């Protein structure tokens, strides 16, 4: 089959590789009909994440048709149309049974690596480095899905691929950021980052009852998309986002601050890596400042909800501000499984059509160009969907 | 479970299963090694006990174990893989057996490597599963056999035990062991 493989910084290629096979009884093989490039794939593309190996197949946002099921999978049949959550969860451990799917105890074959870095190992993730399990991803014609009786979610014919593809990650990710912040009605919410996750956080916050959402970015078409989603916007290249937020919130600050940027850097591992990352960050566009800004801007007693991906260490977190203002922090990889049903219902009832975020469609063969365009934010690129 | 094996493999330290110390200790004149590992498993102590008590099933948990045969009451013969296609074996006896709580064993006289071990099962509060604790103590002999066994255990016996316990937990909680071996990649 054809698959998008990683070879190094800025070097991804579509290669011919062997077809995936069932390796465990609870596996299934899915023929991919749609897959997308995630903002967090850019961390891999830019080689900020260690434990990648040349030839790794990328992709953790994908859906398709079940073409083979293992003997341990009794709830899926060949021909089923499914979306697949990006975290791999076993369904049997304490965490899965407590709705904390991205913290699954059993799905990371390289748990030892993660334990060394994090103390404990979170769930494995498709196509996201060996630290996160080393699983082949879904930017390919076919993908092996472990624990297929737990993850893959059958979707009805009444909704299109484009409408449900983002249930795999970015819609639940934006939604979780808003939900765990306790938005229940009347809040003022600020969202740092108007990439795909930020866009879903904006719409999710409003769906959950926020009265105002203020979105912060610098890319005009992303700010425009945020506006269309119901947000007031701040272009931090034009004005000080701190001053603007103060003015917009009567000096009090947002009740909820959602960070949807993350570190374009994951300081996992050795000090050398960390130092290199710090160096890299200096040439980035102030992204590492988003979390600090969120903490400083947040109203006293408010919630800072982190949707952006962090992997290692960060410097100069204003802990004094966080502590003395009595802030609550919420964060984590998304428990996608938790949100599949309720968010599909939102799509079916017309509350949201997640396909709004798609700006580009490419063939899998053109994925390398898609990565470059997405990273460079060329051509108004917000979200690239690939069709194998 | 190289280690169990090993543990088992290595000779009977009498009952030097001193519970308490956490890592192996080794001094120049003391080859005794003691290791301890814990894993939390989302199953009852009784269920986990039953699996461990079926000694003949242990090779499925312990990677370096070839076979365990139960002999007469409380006694068993263990065979473990050793380097260079060799194997080592020994007889062991169960020294403590409290259903749902603990199984302890030690090698019998005549083993190449004295060893002893225990596995205990403690229900965690709030229905949060079972703390499974394994303690192994063994004394590699001097000379060739000892060297081979040391190699068998590798440099990080705790890590090997930990990985065996992780696989055991996965089997108990999911029925299989997570793997990526055999998946495609763009590596030639």
Automatic annotation (TrEMBL), chain A:
**Which cofactors, if any, are listed as required?**
Zn(2+)
Q: What is the protein's given name?
A: Alcohol dehydrogenase GroES domain protein
Q: Which UniProt keywords apply?
A: Metal-binding, Oxidoreductase, Zinc
Q: Output the Pfam families linked to this UniProt entry.
A: ADH_N (PF08240), ADH_zinc_N (PF00107)
User: What InterPro entries does UniProt report for this protein, alphabetically?
Assistant: ADH-like_C, ADH-like_N, ADH_Zn_CS, GroES-like_sf, NAD(P)-bd_dom_sf
- Keyword Translocase in annotation: no
Query: Can you tell me which family this protein belongs to?
Result: Belongs to the zinc-containing alcohol dehydrogenase family.
